[in-house]
Amino acid sequence: MLKEAPTMEHRFQINLSGLIDLLSNHLYTRPDVFVRELLQNASDAMQARTRLAAEFSGSIELHVDDDMHAVRFIDTGIGLTEEEMHRFLAVIGESSKRGVWVGQAQDYIGQFGIGLLACFIVADEIELVSRSATSPDAPALRWRGRPDGTYDIAVLDEDVPPGTSVRLIAKPESRSLFTADKVFAAASYYGGVLPWPIEVTHKGQSKAVNDSERTQTFPWDASHLPLSSRKAFLMEFGRRSMDTAFFDAIPLVSETGGVNGVAYVLERTPAHNSKSKHRVYLKRMLLSDSVENLLPPWAFFVQCVVNCSELRPTAARNAFHQDEKLQKTQEELGACLRNYLVDLARRDPAQLQKLMAYHHMTLKALALEDDEFFKLFAPWFPIETNYGQSTLQVYLERNQRILCTAGVDAFRQIAQIAAGQGIDVINAGYVYDAELMAKYGELFPLTPVRFVEPSDIGHQLQNLSDEQEARHQNFMQLAQSALEGLACTVKLKVFEPGDLPTLFASNRDANISRQMTVSTEHVDDLWKDIVTQVKQEENSEIYFNYGNALVRRLIQHPDASLVQRIVQILYVQALLMGHYPLSSRELNLMSDGLSGLLEWSLMGTGEKPTWH
Ligand SMILES: Nc1ncnc2c1ncn2[C@@H]1O[C@H](COP(=O)(O)OP(=O)(O)OP(=O)(O)O)[C@@H](O)[C@H]1O
Q: Quick check: keyword Nucleotide-binding in the entry (predicted)?
């Protein structure tokens, strides 16, 4: 039997410099994050002090010292006792803001107990001087920590007010971050929305990072203004803070996520797969200016600036944890956007029309998901018809029914001939349009919706009389033999427009059959065999327009071979007009036909044969 060896207990060790390297190279994307972490600690400390005295109103100062390449962050917050310094500053992962005051700690921004380490990315030592506000005779203490994990604490014989100041001296390679301009820019970027006055002092001059009179409200809060000037204020805030002009501003509120902010409607069509970049503050500290998943996915027509207090960010800080709370928040914010659009549709249709011009794709996608939204917006959908660009409402006023093609090619094939017969057809071949038309039929059953193919239009062409049919049998046979082997039946009809000599009509099956014929020309033998086996021959139809002057002359022309050549050329021309793919045989027909025609036109009159 195996004897159990005596065990010895060991402790995990932390390699501090390895951890700092991990933070600086992988977790923190910007080298100035130390500004964020120190502002965050200062803000939390003042938040904690308001718990001691509700009327407390503190401030944060940043002092830049060019000669020493140093920055000092001074707050008037809760401060630290010696015991707290040992516990919270010296133990990585220990935080005074987590779970200590159950039910209260959610006010704090920090929670992980690692933020201070960000300072070691730019400085070799952190010097923190603090006096706790918890007791009137708490001494002033100086804590100095180094990246090798050592620290010392000294009691200072100085009369400093309660609060904390943190001083960093830049490593030589980080000196460029410690200039007054850089510190001011970083403080504004990260802390511009914090609820305390913040100032940067350099060479005796102080500059305010935020409006000290209005730190309790958000900078986009327009409630202090009369209703009539709020929109202009919001638009100006958006233009200034995001350095671009917007189409409109929509207030955003979500109780679930504790969200308050503004969504700005982009004054351009965003690229199809582009992700919206939203500037998001978490408990008033900038989380990121490229948060991706705060709004529903269809909302890529807006860019927003918001503060949230109830959502959990991921460690990378560019998104929120995908949980039930986030989902509910997305729904609530989605409702804000939807309500804005609904209101705009009722209040200012002209403005909505302009917005549609930039964002109809997004709005169509939204309409497909939401019946109510669809009913409201369907009239404004921009559509293409064979009579030009229009909106669905204008089209329905003209037609009282929807006739559309499911594809762009089918539309091109029938657009002209349908217009010739006074038939108003919608091109529903663009993204979402076919689904939208089908949905229209479901939601408004009194309006018939029909999808048409080129062959449907053919059925409506006018037949010739029996006598005319009989008279032109010869031509029909001659034309049919000219198109021998092309799976296309020749017909003679009368249709508008009169200047159109032929119309090629193909239904879906015949089209697939044609595509297969063309594609077998470009594949190897094995594929050719497979394709040929599955392919079912389906005939298309070509209609010669008996009302067309050229066709009339052609029917009566005495030269049989010339008539066949012209039939072949008209056939290929009809295919080209319908944007059908051409097989190599059809391409040859065109070139042979043209050279034959040239030859014929150069012949002397006596040489030209006749066939009647
Ligand atoms: N300015 C300050 N005033 C008072 N206490 C401070 C101050 N700065 C840091 N502390 C104390 O040091 C602890 C550790 O700070 P650190 O920034 O490392 O982590 P954190 O703020 O708790 O969490 P996070 O890593 O999420 O920022 C804090 O929890 C707090 O108790």
A: yes
Which pair of structure tokens corresponds to residue 177?
Answer: 């971050």
Q: Is the CB of 260 under 6 A from ligand 1?
A: no
What the block records as the tokens of 197 is 């006055």
512-518's contacts with Cβ under 8 Å and 24+ in sequence apart are 512/538, 513/487, 513/537, 513/538, 514/487, 514/540, 514/580, 514/581, 514/583, 515/581, 517/487, 517/583, 518/581, 518/582, 518/583
pLDDT for res 102: 42
Tokens of 518: 């063309």
DSSP run (H or E) holding 339: helix 324-347
Which two structure tokens, joined as six digits, stand for 566? 């012209």
Look up residue 57 and give its DSSP letter: -
pLDDT exceeds 90 at position 229: yes
Q: Does pTM surpass 0.80?
A: no
Residue 42 alpha carbon to ligand 1 centre in Å: 8
C-alpha to C-alpha distance for 82 and 359, rounded to whole angstroms:
59
Where are the extended beta strands (E) located within 138-242? 140-145, 151-156, 163-170, 198-202, 205-208
pLDDT, one tens digit per residue, over 126-164 is 999 999 999 989 999 999 999 888 999 999 998 899 999
Whether 58 lines ligand 1, by a CB cut-off of 6 Å, is no
**Cβ proximity of 162 and 9 under 8 Å:** no
- Location of structure tokens 């904390």: 164
CA of 116 to the centre of ligand 1 (A): 7
Closest CA to 112 of 374, 312, 376: 312
Q: Are 197 and 60 contacting, i.e. CB atoms less than 8 angstroms apart?
A: yes
Position in ligand 1 atom list of the atom nearest CA 92: 18
Dist. CA 78–CA 427, nearest whole Å: 68
Map residue 384 onto helix, strand or coil.
Answer: strand
Nearest to 422 by CA among 327, 352, 516, 496: 496
89 lines ligand 1 (CB under 6 A): yes
Listed in sequence order, the residues at least 6 apart from 561 whose beta carbon sits closer than 8 Å to its beta carbon are 596, 609, 611
Question: Does the Cβ of 593 fall within 6 Å of ligand 1?
Answer: no
Cβ neighbors of 3 (< 8 A, separation 6 or more) are: none
- Ligand 1 contacts CB of residue 163 (under 6 A): no
Are residues 126 and 73 in contact, defined by beta-carbon separation less than 8 angstroms?
A: no
Residues 417-459 pLDDT 10s:
788 778 899 999 998 999 999 999 999 999 999 998 877 776 6
